[in-house]
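Lab notebook, design round three. We kept the backbone fixed and only want residue identities now. Task for the bench partner: fill in a sequence for the structure below.
Input C-alpha cells:
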C-alpha cells in the first residue's frame, strides 16, 4: 500500500518565533495519522533543529530540507551537504523544485547527483517534476516529464526507487491565471506511474507515492487526493496557515 503524504513546503518564509508557533499549532491538532499516512515539514535551514525537536515522539511526522548540495563536502561556501542534514534530524530532502530549477538553474544531471548524496546518507528524496506553460501549450508535457524522470531517477536500483517520493508540479498552472483540473492532475500522475512501470515493473510503480504540487488548498485537497494515482500533496502557501494545512492533512485518502 502506498503512503499518503501531506508535505508542507514553507519556502523562504517566517522567522523563528513564527515558525515555532505555526508548527506548535499544527502538531497540537488531533491529526490521528493512521499507518501509511505521513506529514512532512520542509522548513528553512535555520529552523530544522527546532522542527526536529518539536517532532520527536510524534508518529508519522517527518522533517525535510528544501535542498542540499550535489557535493559530498569541501570548499563550497554557502552550500549544505547531505551528511550535515542527516546529523540534525532531517529525513527527507526536496529535490528539483520548480523554483530551484528556474532560479538556480539546477539541471537533471545535477539533481541525479543530489539524489545519490541522499542515498549515501539514508535520506529520502522528494523529487519534483513538471512542465512550464510553453511546454504545455506545445503539447509536449509528457515527453518533458518523462525526460526529467529518466535523467534524474532512472539510474537508481529498484530498491532505491521504492524510497523515492515524486511530486508533480504543473508549473503552467501556478501564478499564471490558468487552472489545472483534477482530471489533468490524475492524467499526469497516471503517466508518471506508467513510466515507472516501464522501467521498474508493476510492483515498484505501485509502491511509489506521487504527490500533487499545484496550489493544493483545503478547498480542493479532498477531491485531488481521491484520484487513484494522487497520493497526497506538496503544499506551499496553504501550509503557512495552521487551520488550512490541518484540513489538508485530514483530507488524505
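Proposed sequence:
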Amino acid at each position: 500500500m502506498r503512503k499518503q503524504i501531506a508535505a508542507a513546503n514553507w519556502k523562504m518564509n517566517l522567522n523563528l518565533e513564527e515558525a515555532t508557533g505555526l508548527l506548535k499549532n499544527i502538531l497540537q491538532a488531533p491529526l490521528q495519522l493512521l499507518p501509511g499516512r505521513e506529514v512532512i515539514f520542509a522548513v528553512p535551514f535555520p529552523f530544522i533543529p527546532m522542527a526536529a525537536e518539536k517532532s520527536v515522539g510524534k508518529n508519522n511526522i517527518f522533517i525535510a530540507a528544501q535542498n542540499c548540495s550535489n557535493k559530498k563536502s569541501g570548499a563550497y561556501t554557502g552550500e549544505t551537504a547531505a551528511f550535515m542534514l542527516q546529523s540534525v534530524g532531517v529525513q527527507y530532502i526536496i529535490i528539483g523544485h520548480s523554483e530551484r530549477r528556474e532560479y538556480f538553474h539546477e539541471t537533471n544531471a545535477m539533481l541525479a547527483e543530489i539524489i545519490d548524496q541522499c542515498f549515501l546518507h539514508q535520506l529520502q528524496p522528494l523529487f519534483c517534476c513538471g512542465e512550464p506553460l510553453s511546454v504545455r501549450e506545445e503539447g509536449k508535457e509528457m515527453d518533458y516529464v518523462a525526460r526529467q524522470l529518466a535523467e534524474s531517477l532512472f539510474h537508481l536500483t529498484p530498491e532505491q526507487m521504492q524510497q523515492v517520493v515524486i511530486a508533480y508540479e504543473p508549473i503552467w498552472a501556478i501564478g499564471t491565471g490558468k487552472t489545472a483540473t483534477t482530471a489533468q492532475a490524475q492524467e499526469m500522475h497516471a503517466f508518471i506511474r506508467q513510466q515507472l512501470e516501464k522501467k521498474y515493473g508493476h510492483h515498484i510503480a505501485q509502491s511509489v507515492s506521487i504527490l500533487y504540487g499545484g496550489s493544493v488548498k483545503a478547498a480542493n485537497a479532498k477531491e485531488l487526493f481521491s484520484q487513484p494515482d494522487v497520493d497526497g500533496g506538496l503544499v506551499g502557501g496553504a501550509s503557512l496557515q495552521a487551520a488550512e494545512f490541518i484540513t489538508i492533512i485530514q483530507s488524505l485518502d
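Keep this in mind before ordering anything: The CA atoms of residues 82 and 115 lie 10 Å apart.
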